[in-house]
């Protein structure tokens, strides 16, 4: 047990370093006065941190993660979506954004943290509610970024390869949009990237 704990702790800096690298690559695309939709997960929380540290202009962030990490950055304008009412709250926020002259034409970005991808089924989700929420974020953004660590990508089939053994079978999926940007790390195989291009990844960013 002690050995297993030591191994997990030793691996942690590498995991967080990769998340920071992906987040920095993502934030480089964000322009001033943007509206940012953040999915909940570790990599997208890192995006929030990078937004706060790197940008000098105000960004309006809508997220379904209410974690303490995000609350440390009051200069970012956050709207938090919670629990069973999240979809209704998101619809209300969208109406306000569409009706207000100051936000109606702002660029909208969605950052989705994907633990698991499948070219045919899309983004793996833990629940039907998570799949619906991801789909809402994807449907209302002009520019979509999906962040996933290359260690979870495999080919053929991505979700059916050896990496899939680390995760329980997914029953819920959020479909890929027609066009999106994949941000991953430099261990991604060429075969896996080719499959995802076929699934709508019009741009692939290898964060390093």
From TrEMBL:
SMART domains xrefs: DeoRC
Keyword DNA-binding among UniProt keywords: yes
Any one GO molecular function term: DNA binding
Pfam families (alphabetical): DeoRC
Coiled coil: none
Domain DeoR-like transcriptional repressor C-terminal sensor: 18-150
Keyword terms: DNA-binding
Name of the protein: DNA-binding transcriptional regulator AgaR
Organism field: Actinobaculum suis
């Amino acid at each position: 047990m002690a050995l297993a704990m030591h191994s997990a702790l030793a691996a942690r800096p590498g995991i967080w370093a990769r998340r920071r690298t992906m987040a920095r690559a993502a934030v480089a695309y964000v322009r001033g006065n943007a509206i940012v939709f953040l999915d909940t997960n570790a990599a997208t929380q890192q995006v929030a941190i990078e937004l706060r540290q790197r940008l000098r202009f105000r960004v309006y962030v809508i997220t379904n993660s209410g974690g303490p990490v995000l609350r440390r950055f009051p200069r970012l304008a956050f709207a938090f979506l919670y629990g069973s009412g999240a979809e209704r709250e998101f619809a209300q926020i969208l109406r306000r954004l569409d009706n207000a002259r100051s936000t109606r034409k702002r660029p909208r970005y969605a950052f989705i943290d994907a633990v698991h991808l499948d070219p045919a089924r899309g983004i793996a989700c833990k629940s039907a509610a998570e799949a619906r929420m991801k789909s809402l974020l994807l449907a209302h953004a002009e520019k979509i970024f999906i962040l996933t660590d290359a260690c979870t990508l495999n080919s053929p089939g991505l979700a059916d390869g050896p990496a899939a053994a680390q995760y329980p079978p997914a029953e819920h999926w959020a479909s890929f949009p027609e066009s999106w940007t994949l941000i991953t790390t430099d261990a991604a195989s060429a075969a896996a990237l080719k499959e995802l291009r076929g699934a709508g990844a019009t741009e692939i960013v290898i964060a390093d």
